[in-house]
Amino acid sequence: MSRVRHSLIVALTVGFLTSFASAQQVLFSDRGESSANFTVVQDPDTTVEFNVDYAALGIPEAPRTSTLPGSAVQRGIQITANKGDDAAATATAANLILGSTPQNFAGVHTLQYDVWMNVGGSSTSTTEGFLGGVARSTSNSAIYRNFRTGRGNGAWFYATGDNGNATDDYAQLNNGARDVVFADTTNAESTAKFNNAFDNSLSGVNDDAANEWVRVRVVNNGSTASVFFDDVLFSTNAVTNTGGFAWFGYEDMFGSVADAGIYGVFDNVVVTNVPEPTALAALPVVGLLLGRRGRRGRTA
Fold it and tell me: Which pLDDT tens digit goes with each residue over 102-130?
């Protein structure tokens, strides 16, 4: 291949990758230091505290903090459930919908955030969960596992921090329909997902999300939504709503009162749009062209 042709391919590649990067525009970004950018929807006996110094809680800095301009080190949102009294009687949850007035997101887009599911070493009643979703059209009540049929809306998931549920440590839902379910069992598919995504285990069958930063991504592709934990694809499911609100949250799916060492910390909440699949498909073509040039160069 001539030098001129190779230079042209390199220039085209740089231009393509530049366009690819610029196509991923930030539609929403928040560092968890203020309530100004959220609509908080809470059931009773939950707390949502912003700008929490989670270093004081013994939690390391979230891995993506440095990528958000102006983000304060080790500051985020702490959420608790069923900690306000000694006689909790029901499940409860808090949701944070993005936008002081819920912001509508249309087209192909990704919600991502970092979550730390804290479980103290001497804690009891440790099974609580984190949630998130896209394409939501309601903001009047908290969505969570126990009220999934009546309140479930959009494409969303719930997951436990310690894999403590008997049958559903993870589920993805379309509105109120729980279409994808995984439990902490020896099933090969479940084992691969939990152990590839997470690093710790609180004596369950597989690794779980407790006491580590987990990067959550919910990708709305229009007709389907996909959920990733630390870049491990957990599930893909149909989406009925074509667009709507993005949100995340925390729940206690049981009525028991856990101690103060059970809570969730959230940081680095971002929504981006993503390139169309045709743009992604062009990447291998560029690589093939450069690869062909390299092989010819070695045989010349």
Answer: 999 999 999 999 999 999 877 667 899 99
Q: Kindly state the tokens that stand for 26.
A: 């930030």
Tokens coding 252: 């206690």
Task: Decide if pLDDT at 80 tops 90.
Answer: yes
Q: Which residues, other chains included, contact 279 with Cβ-Cβ below 8 Å and sequence gap of 6+?
A: 19, 20, 23
In terms of Cα–Cα distance, which of 163, 141, 168 is closest to 152?
141
pLDDT digits (tens, 9 = 90+) for 242-291: 899 999 999 999 988 878 899 999 999 999 997 544 334 444 444 444 44
- The pLDDT tens digits for 14-24 are 444 444 445 58
If you count them, how many residues does the chain have? 300
Q: Are residues 61 and 10 in the same domain?
A: no
Q: Are 54 and 265 in contact (CB under 8 A)?
A: yes
Give the chain's domain count. Answer: 2
Residue 149 sits in the same domain as residue 291: no
Question: Do residues 20 and 63 both lie within one domain?
Answer: no
Using a 10 angstrom Cβ sphere, with 0-12 exposed, 13-18 middle and 19 or more buried, the burial of residue 199 is: middle
| Reported pTM | 0.84
Tracing tokens 């910390």 back to the chain, one arrives at: 265
